């Protein structure tokens, strides 16, 4: 498949650019325990965490969603910067892509926007992006198409095939599909049979170096 020439690349954040499963799992386990619930295993956390807390906590905790949100973010904020680890090749990839003319980079994450921007600033990556959009920044969170429009606002670029949406989970692909963008799966494991059945997937790359090469080739 020939991909549309990219004018903008929108990245997911957690576990696309940075490794954050351990800190997310710890904060979620603490939340379950504080509310008298059985915590998930790490494998369950990796499989189930997709939506923002704004969207998922009412489903998980019902009328105690507000209490759960407070516990989760208090726990997460206590040590998330100390445990922040870029994924292999992410820094070099972002540096190289940011230097390409006429290519804009952005982030759309379901991490709370204030925390997302703190992490980007901590890594010194904020300079690479025209926008860093997290949960609660737009009227709706990922996978709603409104969040993509919010991220592109002021860039002169509209959502469409020339915007590549890059992530590691199904919700990223759904967001790309909902907004009419090109859907790129960035993770070591190739899609399993029927894993994304019914959801558009335009390309899979196993690592950051491979994605950089894909962009460069598509710009020629």
TrEMBL record:
Keyword Hydrolase in record: yes
A Pfam family: HAD_2
The protein's annotated pathway: Organic acid metabolism; glycolate biosynthesis; glycolate from 2-phosphoglycolate: step 1/1
SUPFAM superfamilies, alphabetized: HAD-like
Family: Belongs to the HAD-like hydrolase superfamily. CbbY/CbbZ/Gph/YieH family.
GO MF annotation: an example: phosphoglycolate phosphatase activity
A biological process term (GO) from this entry: DNA repair
EC top class, as a word: hydrolase
InterPro entries assigned: HAD-like_hydrolase_sf, HAD-like_sf, HAD_2, HAD_sf
Keywords: Hydrolase
Record field: catalytic activity: 2-phosphoglycolate + H2O = glycolate + phosphate
Lineage, highest ranks first: Bacteria, Pseudomonadati, Pseudomonadota, Alphaproteobacteria, Rhodospirillales
Enzyme Commission designation: 3.1.3.18
Gene Ontology CC annotation, any one: cytosol
Name by which UniProt lists this protein: phosphoglycolate phosphatase
């Amino acid at each position: 498949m020939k991909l549309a020439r990219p004018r903008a690349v929108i990245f997911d954040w957690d576990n696309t650019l940075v490794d954050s499963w351990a800190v997310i799992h710890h904060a979620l386990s603490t939340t379950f325990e504080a509310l008298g619930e059985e915590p998930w295993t790490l494998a369950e956390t990796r499989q189930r965490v997709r939506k923002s807390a704004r969207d998922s906590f009412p489903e998980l905790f019902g009328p105690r969603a507000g209490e759960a949100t407070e516990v989760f973010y208090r726990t997460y904020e206590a040590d998330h910067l100390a445990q922040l680890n870029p994924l292999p090749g992410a820094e070099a990839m972002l540096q190289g892509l940011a230097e390409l003319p006429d290519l804009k980079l952005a982030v759309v994450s379901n991490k709370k926007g204030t925390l997302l921007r703190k992490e980007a600033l901590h890594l010194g990556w904020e300079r690479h992006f025209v926008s860093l959009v997290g949960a609660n920044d737009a009227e709706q969170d990922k996978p709603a198409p409104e969040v993509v429009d919010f991220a592109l606002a002021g860039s002169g670029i509209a959502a469409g095939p020339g915007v590549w949406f890059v992530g590691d989970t199904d919700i990223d692909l759904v967001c790309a599909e909902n907004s009419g963008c090109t859907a790129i799966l960035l993770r070591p494991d190739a899609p399993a049979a029927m894993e994304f059945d019914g959801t558009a997937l335009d390309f899979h790359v196993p690592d950051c170096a491979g994605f950089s090469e894909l962009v460069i080739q598509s710009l020629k």
